[in-house]
Amino acid sequence: MSSKFELSGDTAWCPGCGNFPLRVALKQALEELELKPEEVVMSTGIGQAAKMPHYIEVNGFNGLHGRSLPPAVGVRIANKDLQVIVESGDGCTYGEGGNHLLHNIRRNVDLVHLVHNNQIYGLTKGQASPTTGKENRTGVQTHGINAEPFKPVKFAVGMEASFVARGFVGEKEHLAELIKQAACHRGYALVDILQPCVSFNKVNTYDWYRERVYKLPDDYQAEDYDTALQKAQEWDERIPIGVIYREEKETFYDNFSFLDKQPLVEQERSPEEVEPLLAKFK
Amino acid sequence: MSSKFELSGDTAWCPGCGNFPLRVALKQALEELELKPEEVVMSTGIGQAAKMPHYIEVNGFNGLHGRSLPPAVGVRIANKDLQVIVESGDGCTYGEGGNHLLHNIRRNVDLVHLVHNNQIYGLTKGQASPTTGKENRTGVQTHGINAEPFKPVKFAVGMEASFVARGFVGEKEHLAELIKQAACHRGYALVDILQPCVSFNKVNTYDWYRERVYKLPDDYQAEDYDTALQKAQEWDERIPIGVIYREEKETFYDNFSFLDKQPLVEQERSPEEVEPLLAKFK
Amino acid sequence: MIKNIVIGGEAGQGLKTTAAILGKALFKNGFNLHTSMDFMSRIRGGHNFGRIRFGDEEIRGPQEEIDLLVALNEETITRHVEKLAKDGAVLYDEAVSAVENSIVVPAEEIASEVNPKAVNTVYVGSILKAFGINLDCARSVVEDYFDAESVISDNLKLLNRGYEKGETIFKAPEPKSRTGEQIYLNGNEATALGALAGGINYYSAYPMSPSTGIMSYIAGKQDEMNVVVEQAEDELAAINMAIGASYGGIRTMSGTSGGGLALMNEAIGLAGLTETPLVVANVQRPGPATGLPTRTSQGDLLFAVNSAQGEFPLLITASRNQENAFYQTFRALNLADKYQLPVILMSDQFLADSSTNVPDFELQNLEIERNLIAAEDMGPDEEYRRYEFTEDGISPRAFPGQLKKQTVLADSDEHDEKGHIVEAADKRRRMVDKRARKLDRLIEDDLAEPEYFGPENIDYLLVGWGSTYGPLREAQSRLNEEDIKAGYLSFTDVWPLPTTGLEKLADNEVELIDVENNSQAQFARLIRQETGIEVEHRILKYDGRPFRGEEIFRRITEEVIQ
Amino acid sequence: MIKNIVIGGEAGQGLKTTAAILGKALFKNGFNLHTSMDFMSRIRGGHNFGRIRFGDEEIRGPQEEIDLLVALNEETITRHVEKLAKDGAVLYDEAVSAVENSIVVPAEEIASEVNPKAVNTVYVGSILKAFGINLDCARSVVEDYFDAESVISDNLKLLNRGYEKGETIFKAPEPKSRTGEQIYLNGNEATALGALAGGINYYSAYPMSPSTGIMSYIAGKQDEMNVVVEQAEDELAAINMAIGASYGGIRTMSGTSGGGLALMNEAIGLAGLTETPLVVANVQRPGPATGLPTRTSQGDLLFAVNSAQGEFPLLITASRNQENAFYQTFRALNLADKYQLPVILMSDQFLADSSTNVPDFELQNLEIERNLIAAEDMGPDEEYRRYEFTEDGISPRAFPGQLKKQTVLADSDEHDEKGHIVEAADKRRRMVDKRARKLDRLIEDDLAEPEYFGPENIDYLLVGWGSTYGPLREAQSRLNEEDIKAGYLSFTDVWPLPTTGLEKLADNEVELIDVENNSQAQFARLIRQETGIEVEHRILKYDGRPFRGEEIFRRITEEVIQ
Ligand SMILES: Cc1ncc(C[n+]2csc(CCOP(=O)(O)OP(=O)(O)O)c2C)c(N)n1
Ligand SMILES: Cc1ncc(C[n+]2csc(CCOP(=O)(O)OP(=O)(O)O)c2C)c(N)n1
Ligand code: SF4
Ligand code: SF4
Ligand SMILES: [Mg+2]
Ligand SMILES: [Mg+2]
User: Fold this and answer.
1) Which ligand sits nearest to residue C270's alpha carbon?
2) CA of B89 to the centre of ligand 2 (A)
């Protein structure tokens, strides 16, 4: 199916990489959301995942490693009519960018955040990321990993993020559905996506994930915090995919009365508006 | 009581500040641990809390704002015989330094981490910190706070930190005891300390804390994760103090066979040791 | 005639309020004045003081010799009494035997009867009395300054009591009617107002002295001016959020001090490579690291000029005083948009925290120039290219969503015209050249040459940049008064360095004197780097304190002229 | 005689292995050689290539003209064939009609019969055959390179097959016996070995091309050498951990590339102010921002020189080649300890990823000089003061726990001799001066003057810094061969800038030519800043590719001499 989000040309991804099905799911979701390319902005960091805006027809801000989130917040403040998607790797998001994740969960800006979690640093050739499992060995982690793996879903639920989901690129339709739900959710929506790296992660392969991944049942109560907290702890043996936790709550926008009227970017400004402020100094 | 940790001279703290009783508890704990000043290293960031090494007789590395933790890790690696204490404010630790907190919980280096949580930026004159409550107004947060308050204890338990406690400077003896337990714990030990700022935080006063704070009962099971997870959520109405969670687990040191033998700082090195490595290049 | 008041006490004794009310009262009374603050990095205790210099002549900076020393505690007397003028006076709550003129006002005692918290107003009353200045001006300030009725009436009462208990020692200068409408404000406020006049819709920063005042001021006007002010989790977030907002199409700004600028460095390069307009105020304090957090310095010059790894066009401009800070900020926003580059706006604690009277801002002459592409500039089948090659290197700028059926791609890797990653040697070269051409155009069209002050024929040329302007003008006038033929070249734009004016003046006959608030004569180094001109004399100060005009004058006569 | 091989293909085709095995084999065979890599920033696909230049003369860098082009895919032919020498040959799996000498080796087909993964070894066999070089050297390399018996035997088999299928086209240079024992390694490995020889116990970094090789190498030796290698969560952590470890008393190091150095900036100032020894390797790539991640540049010079807000002593030294990288790193660790300051060790992708043969390191002449206080240096009742004022500004350094009953206090605020916060003007001034004196002493005792190469009387003087050394030496020799009287001044220490040698050579008669891998002639700017000397000619390259000697030669004859 040719899509208006299709961008022709070569990618820098390896044949067989999990980024390809992820892109398919993303395009499908954007189509089904009936968005136009110019209405979508993708903000990314640096890494293999972060090259996405070069391979799909949307607006893109491909910024610095670790800084995929902050520019997205800025864009969303500038223009409330845009669908803003943050997209980056696990290293970029959970490593270098950890502090932004932490605080943007608190900020609850209306964003979709897709993390290509291949449990490895792809672009820099296979060092451990925060999510790399203890059993892995790499060129730098010659002993194995010196720290406990970071668990994104558990972390985000623990932080009471307003929408937390896990997807798997081996379940494209399901993933597209998650992305759509994230987009429709009002507030910050994190989707951690299991994405095999065929070049550098020889542990967490398609098979490894397939053996463990299962879809949450239809009657799963994503709105119940305690349920979510328990579910968020599952990993290793069985890995749930789906919306783990969801809560409608105050967003960043609710703090500013003038933000919902008209996109800031469309508001005309004139120097003379400061005239009344000068009175205080007279 | 005169203590060998006593340092005479003026402090830059405000009269009535919660930092004073905190210092008393800290000195008491160090005394009772039978440490000598030269055996203790305090690593701090920048803020009012972070001035502690200037007001107590120990080794000190008073580094950059937000970076109280990383130097401490370095010191501990250099010298396993030192008692390393990280000490800083809530802004420094949970704001600027959030990423280090996140990843050092994973690293589990043997450190005591004392956070003076006055729920405000003291030294810079009263802006919101990540822990400032929603009901606060400040000179920058003129609308109130744009984000959900960060909950340090809940966060740390969620991250499965190996030791998580909360203290209150209004309970000095109890606090001293917590500090001692943190020091005796093998691994990373976070103690979040409620410390009223009499100059800038007009909401979270001594009275505010006194009305809410209660000590965990003796039969509280800090080793049980689910119990801890529940307890860690308490705030607002009732605020538990004590050791919330404790788990003995692998530390950073366990990954290095050569670290436990002799402090690295005492190991002699000679350039000729690389001789065998050169063979590979011949 | 100019008079100089110093008020000193502990942090927490309300010095700021006293200085603010007194300063504003003197301003309302028609004086010229300059108020500067010397704070320690603490909330209570220690020793802080403010200097208020006022009179009927132009006043450009602080002065050392004290006419009236107002001591909120005894330490103030010990620390400052040696700078008391021969006929100076001390105002304190008991008699000071060591000095001739001692005004005794037991302010706390007086206040305790009405409202102990309002003790500062007692001082204001007594100070005005010391100069024989009528209270009317101060009354209206008090009414403005406080909100609650009861607080206002307490303060008015204490103002009177202070006046009554005081004693007139000095003949006050005659307030002449100043030229035109004036306003009284400090450098941070002026910068914040320039940003608001420039139409920013977003300001993100992380608190850091002495820059926080900019954020606080704007934060107070969020709803009035439709500006979102966001205190970020760290400086990395602050700057990257601002860059995102700018890419999103609104005007944005950030502000910090040196350590924060260091953290922002990588992102300044990002703005450079992605050609995203960005203005960052760097309010300098003495470094490195934490340094002296509440004091002043010009130690970040070469650091700012050489921001970030790699090479990209960048504009560094420094405000010379409060009036200029407003217009420079406004201009910085326009130039950032026009040339699609980062601009670092240099200020420092001295400028940021000092208040003075300046001519009311001329808003009607200002124009916000966004320099965005208009939809009609695009051909019907043309694909929008964010980095289109053009003669002057400036590509048409659109924001996402602006143009129908067009996407906007910005990239931190080297890229082609569309914004996609490239690695080919010739493509890289062309993009580097394209970006460099923007600066050539800026130099030609917009770079501000330094302003020259002084006689036509000179033996000495003082050079300085930014906030040393006031003290340097004063020093230069003093030199001229002593028949020393000295001129002064005041730089605001420092990178790219405007060289024409300097090269014209710096002929062989003239001795150059560099005056800077740092230890390495960074500006002199920059001048030599860019022009080969060696500035042979250096008057440097790096103790965290601002220059005073008389001090520069004295040092020049001692160290240079001899 | 020198021959030049280029091997090209897609990322993921095993180019690195081929180059590594072939290079080592040629090395073992007694040749001089230089292997450089041209990678794209991707894992698979695209176009990568390596250049191997070998022979019996000294070889200092890459060459453009190709003798043997080994094409792992067709694109390689298209891209490189125009650089093929008149009597050059192409090795490919089918006949190439466009060229005269086409060696056909269907490597994949051959490998598929034995082990498809070992296809690269077929090429190695055929390449050696092309030059008539006997396989013995390659056999021992294969046995070393792989671990598993079966893999070794497959590769040996395929090495033979490649040899058999190939064809001898060239007369190989005669391997002369090189002077003394030699080793073959790249710049990152040399730096890592220098760090290990210097006795580091800790290395923390965050992965970033092209610096990661240093970390990987050291990580592989953790247990052997008692070094903790920690991959940090970000560069801020990496550098602050290293500083803490150094304060703790062990030798430490960190490494990164420009963007990471930007993030480390504030902490470099921290090391400066706290006087904590710190060595950071900055392996440059083209910036700003992400730039060209896998390519080379010298674009961070002025950025590094002007690191961090404020002013503090700092040493910047650049390695000129692989041999020098080892000794510079070792020396940097000694000087950081001696002067208690940060040292930035400049390298770049060209140096980092290129391998060459160098004389075996002379370990016995090296001495680790920690310059720590000895317990007996303390008087019995003396209080230890971390920042004691001394004549040369160097205070006695102890680590925590070292001295009985003494504490060590390091502070990021301005401080007194003990390390406690101070704000007084005179105390600040004295500390700034104390720190500055350290650099004066360093300049006197330890600063390395540039090395000069060339005849005594010259018309032209080439100046360059760091890794352009090889190509520049080659260019200078070529110029001399053509009777152009040119000398070359090769800088390693660049900040503080050593000026004596330069000032002696740069008299009026000599034309100066600056050669740099950047677009702004940063080194020429620095020279003018520090000496007033204007370097009139500039040979700049900023497309991410390294210079070749012949290219510099050609450009000088075209652009300068004419
Ligand atoms: C400041 C900075 N530090 C380091 C890097 C190098 N770097 C680029 S991508 C990357 C890691 C990529 O891993 P991840 O984010 O998981 O993305 P993936 O490639 O696996 O999709 C690193 C360390 C950089 N570009 N900038
Ligand atoms: C990089 C950097 N950013 C900002 C600052 C300014 N600063 C100093 S202390 C501080 C906040 C202090 O708050 P907290 O950590 O809670 O400590 P407290 O003073 O409340 O004890 C800030 C923002 C700084 N010194 N460095
Ligand atoms: S390195 Fe891994 S994640 Fe990156 S493109 Fe290749 S397979 Fe995918
Ligand atoms: S500002 Fe607050 S935290 Fe700081 S010393 Fe004063 S009371 Fe304590
Ligand atoms: Mg990854
Ligand atoms: Mg605080």
Assistant:
1) 1
2) 8
